[in-house]
Amino acid sequence: TGPVRRYPRTEPNRQVMGEFGHVYKEQYAVALFNSVRFEIEGGGGPQSQLLHRKNPLEDHSIFSGGLFQYLEGNKKWRNRFVFVADTYDVSFYENKVAHERGLHPKGTINCAGYKALTSMEEYLDLVSTSLPGVKAKVGSGPFVKGATQFPLILWHPYARHHYFCVLTEKEQTKWHAVLQDCVRHSNNGLSEECRVQTPAFTDAVRLHRQAQGHYGTWDMMCGGPPQILANLVMETLYPELRNLIGPRLKGKIKQRQRNWMLISEAVYKQVLSQTQAQYEALVQACEVETPRLDAALRTDMDQIITSKEHVSGKIRALVLPRAEQLLRRSVQPYVSSILEALMEPTSRGFSEVRDVFFRELVEVSKNTLNGGGKDKLGEHMEKISMLAFHPVKMQSCYEKVEQLSLEGLQQRFDVSSPSVFVQRAQILMREQMDNAVYTFEQLLHQSLEEKDQRGENLCKTIQCCQDRVLKKYDYDSSTVRKKFFREALLQIIIPYMLKQLAPSCHPDLPPFQELIFEDFSRFILVENMFEEVVLQSVTKDIMMAVKEAAVQKRHNLYRDSMILTNSDPDLHLLGESPSVDWAAQFGGGDEESDESPEGCGRSKWRRRQVVSMIKLDGMGPLPYESSTPMEPEPNSPDNVQEIRYLINPVVEMVVPASEEDLAVLTNGTEPGMLTLEGEEEEVTLITTVVEEVHRKSLQWKSAPQEVSKSITPYSLSTVSSGPTKGINQVYICLFSPLFKMREI
C-alpha cells in the first residue's frame, strides 16, 4: 500500500490551544476589570420577585430504569439498568443490583453536544453527512439492526454513538424526554456564577473563531470549557482528517462509515484529554496573577476608566458613522421580524410553564379538599417540589419553544440554527418554574407553621399562596423574557455587523493602542472597545423594539415603567431557608428511591427520584439479546497502527492446496482482483505462508472449525481478522498433511 502518512496528531491541537491561550489571557484581565468595576459601581436590573434556591437537586436523582443497549462488541442487545444522577450523566449497569451495591458502571455518557433521536431515518441522515459522497439506504441501518420499533439513539458529530431501544411507545416518549433533558443540561456547562472565568472564556472563544472567519452563533458551544475547546480544535481538524483519510477507507458503505466513526472517536477522545489538561494549566496560570492584577485595578480604577473613555471616544468617532449607516441599511428593516420570530414561541412556552404549575396546584387543592389532609398534602408537595426537573411534565413547555424558527433570516445573519436560542429559553423556563415552586413551598410552609389548618381552611391557604406566586411569576417571566429577547437580538445582529465592518475598520484600529498607558494596556484592549462601540450603536434600536413589543398585550409582557412593589418585604428571608422535606414533616414519599452507595456516614440517607420508573411485567429478553456474558465494548483505535489497519484492512484466508498447487500459490500469486463473498475486491499486497499440519495433530484439532465438525485437510474455510469488506493485504495459509511450518 506504500507508506502511511503519520498525521501530526498534537500539532493542530497545540496550534489552536496556543492561539486560544493568548486570547484567553488578554480577555481574563479585561473580565477581571469589568468584574471589579461592577463591584465598585454597583448596578443591575430589576429585582426578582420569586425566590431562588441554590441547590435544587440535593439528595435527588433524575431517573432510572431498564433499557436495551446495543453492544458493538458482539452485535447483540443486552438489558441494562440506566441511572441518571443529579449531574445528568447517563450511567448504565449490568443490572439494578450492581447499581445498588455501588459497583462501577459499565459506562457513563456525558450528553454535551449529543442529539437524542427516536428515528433510524433521522440518524442515517446525520451519519451520511460524516463522509462526503457516502449515503446509506434508508432502512438499512449502518451496522445496527433495530431490536424493536422504538429506538433511542444518542448521536454526536465526533464522539461515540450510543444505541438503545425499549418495548413500548410510552417508554420511548419518557426516555426521550429524559435524554433530551440530559443534553439540555449538559450543554449548559458554563457557570454564570463565575464572573471572571466564564466571560473571559466565552469572549476568547468568540474572538478566536472570528479570527478564523467564523462569525455568528455556534452549535458546538456545548458542555464545559474542555469540551468546548475540544470542539474548537475539531472544527479545524475534522475536515482535514476527513479529506486525508476518507478517500483511503475501503469496503462497503456501512464499513467505511463504521471505521470513520471509530477514527473520529479516537481523535476526539485524545483531543479532549489534551484540552482538559491545557485548560486547567491556563486557568491556574491566570489565577496566580489575579491578586496582583486585582490590587492594581483597585488602586488605579479611576485612571483606568478615564483612559478607556478617552480612547473609546476617539474610536467612536471613527466607527459610529459607518456602524449607523450599516444599521439603517441592513439591520433596522429586519429587527421587528427577528423579534417576532423569537417572541411568539418563547411566550407560549412561558405561558405553558404557568399553566402546568397552576394545574399541579389545583390538583393538590382538590385532593386536600377530598379529605386527604396534611398527610396527603405532604405526598403531593414532595412531587411538586421537583416539578421543574421532571422532563416528562415539562415536555409540553419545551415543545412550545422548539417551534422557534428563523427561516429566511439565518443565512442573512449567519445563524447556524435556532437551537442555541431554543435551549437557552428552555433553561430559563426551567429556572422560572423552580423559582415559582420554591417560593410557593416557602410561603405554604410558613402558613402551616403559624397555625394548624385543615379542610377548607387549608384549601384557602393553598389558594392564597398560589395567587401570590402567580402574580410574582408573571412579573419575573416578563423581565426574564425581555432580557432574553434583547440578548438574542444582540447575538444575531452584532456578529453580522462586526463581519461587515471589520474589513474597513480593523486597519485603522492599531494606532489607538498607542494612546493607552502601558500600565493599563492589559485592562483596555482596542478590539474590545471597537466591539463596544458597535454594541452601543445598535442597543438603542433593540431596546426600543422590545419596549414597543411590551405594549402588545398578546405577549403578556409588562412595560418597563411598571415596577412591582414588593408586597412581601420579609419574603427574601425565606430564601435562605433550606428546601422543605415534605415527606418527613407531613408524611408521604412513595417515590422510587435507592440507597446512596457512598453513605456519607448517614445510614438512613435516601436519594429520591424526580421521575417515577415505568414498571413492566414480564420484561423478558429481546429476540436479539445476548444470553452470554457481556463482551467488552470495542475500543476506538488509540494509535497510528490501529488507525492504519482501518484504512488498510488485512484479511486472512485458509486455502486448501495440494503439493502441485504450492509452486503456483507461492510464486505466481500477484496483486489484482479477488472474489470474496460473491464480490470482487481489489488486493494491493499478498503474503503467502505455507503451514504443513497433519490432520490428526492437536494443532489441527484446535482449529475453530473442527469444534463443530471434522473436515479434511483439503477443506476450505476463511478466517477474517476483522469485520472487513475492502481488502488491501491478504495472508494466504496453505495446509498439507505434514508437520512443519515454513514461511515463504
Automatic annotation (TrEMBL):
Species whose genome carries this gene: Oncorhynchus tshawytscha
Sequence similarity: Belongs to the Niban family.
InterPro entries attached to this UniProt entry: Niban-like (IPR026088), Niban_1/2/3_dom (IPR059060), PH-like_dom_sf (IPR011993), PH_domain (IPR001849)
The protein's name: PH domain-containing protein
Domain PH: 60-184
Cited CDD domains: Niban-like
Pfam families membership: Niban2, PH_Niban2
Highest taxon, organism lineage: Eukaryota
